[in-house]
């Protein structure tokens, strides 16, 4: 029975992912069209981002330039890395790690961007000194409605920043550690054994991710009324969508591939084909998100109103606090 299984198993389903030249040699007409269109989308996303950078550096105040560039670059960077991973399947681990590191920095930059859009730390503290932060928000404590509200002070603001900054720092540290362990043969993303490094590093990074997203959610819930004139809700939605597609969707596809649910298609093994499908989906999705974020961030950056807007903001916040 085992001999019969060996005879029917295609050797291409058991080897490493193909190199780039093998992909080119095995492309049919549909494959040529698909790869050409996706490569064009990735290149066009990068060109849109570069054009947006020029606009930002010309039109946006200095304190917001780098923040908005970082946040705008999330989708184009992921799209570009996915395109490289599509053409060079054996480098998918490195392209995914690069995208993940970039987005880890974007999480922190998005939090700082919301503060700068509200006038900076001092203006935020002045506006919100009489109010409290609702910490029963996702992804950590959305169901813990009994949690107390926290006073807005310099210390609480520092803790919010620290909660997001630790992810930007530690994600890069663990990525470097993973690459070093991989060169020594100790890190393999498909290794589910308790003695493998991946089974320890990946869940810990997941905890750091959730811990970093929590402060951003807390600050967004507090400022979404104040920043509604600059479309902070759709901006936050795009930021969350990039997170879901680049992290959760990719993880689900990879798990299905590792369990053999995604069929093998030589020269791609089941796992390599899963990686390939993930990269191709990300290119298309990030292309659409790039177009949407360009519309959201390409605007006049005028300062927020002070007196009249403050009165409206205070009324809304008091109403929210009473309802809570």
TrEMBL record:
Cellular component, GO annotation: membrane
Localisation per UniProt entry: Membrane
InterPro entries (alphabetical): Ostalpha/TMEM184C
Record keywords: Membrane, Transmembrane, Transmembrane helix
Transmembrane segments: 32-55, 67-88, 158-182, 194-220, 241-263, 275-297
A Pfam family the protein falls into: Solute_trans_a
Membrane topology according to the record: Multi-pass membrane protein
Protein name: Organic solute transporter subunit alpha
Source organism per UniProt: Austrofundulus limnaeus
The organism's taxonomic lineage, starting at the top: Eukaryota, Metazoa, Chordata, Craniata, Vertebrata
Gene field: slc51a
């Amino acid at each position: 029975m085992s001999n019969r299984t060996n005879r029917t198993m295609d050797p291409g389903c058991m080897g490493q992912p193909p190199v780039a030249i093998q992909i080119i040699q095995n492309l049919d007409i549909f494959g040529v069209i698909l790869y050409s269109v996706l490569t064009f989308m990735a290149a066009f996303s990068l060109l849109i981002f570069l054009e947006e950078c020029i606009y930002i550096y010309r039109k946006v105040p200095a304190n917001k330039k780098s923040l908005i560039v970082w946040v705008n670059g999330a989708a184009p960077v992921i799209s570009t890395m996915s395109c490289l991973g599509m053409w060079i399947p054996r480098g998918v681990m490195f392209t995914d790690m690069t995208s993940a590191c970039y987005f880890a920095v974007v999480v922190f930059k998005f939090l700082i961007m919301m503060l700068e859009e509200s006038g900076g730390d001092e203006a935020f503290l002045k506006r919100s000194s009489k109010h409290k932060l609702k910490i029963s928000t996702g992804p950590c404590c959305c169901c813990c409605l009994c949690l107390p509200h926290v006073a807005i002070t310099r210390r609480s603001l520092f803790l919010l920043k620290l909660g997001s900054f630790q992810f930007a720092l530690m994600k890069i540290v663990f990525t470097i550690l993973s690459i070093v362990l991989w060169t020594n043969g100790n890190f393999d993303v498909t290794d589910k054994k308790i003695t493998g490094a991946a089974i320890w590093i990946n869940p810990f990074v997941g905890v750091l991710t959730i811990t970093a997203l929590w402060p951003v959610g807390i600050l967004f819930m507090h400022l979404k009324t104040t920043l509604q004139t600059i479309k902070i809700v759709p901006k936050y939605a795009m930021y969350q969508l990039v997170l879901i597609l680049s992290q959760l969707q990719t993880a689900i596809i990879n798990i299905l591939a590792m369990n053999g649910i995604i069929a093998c298609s030589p020269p791609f093994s089941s796992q390599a084909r899963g990686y390939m499908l993930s990269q191709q989906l990300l290119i298309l999705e990030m292309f659409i998100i790039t177009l949407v974020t360009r519309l959201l961030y390409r605007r006049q950056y005028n300062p927020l109103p002070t007196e009249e807007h403050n009165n409206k903001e205070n009324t809304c916040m008091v109403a929210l606090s009473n309802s809570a």
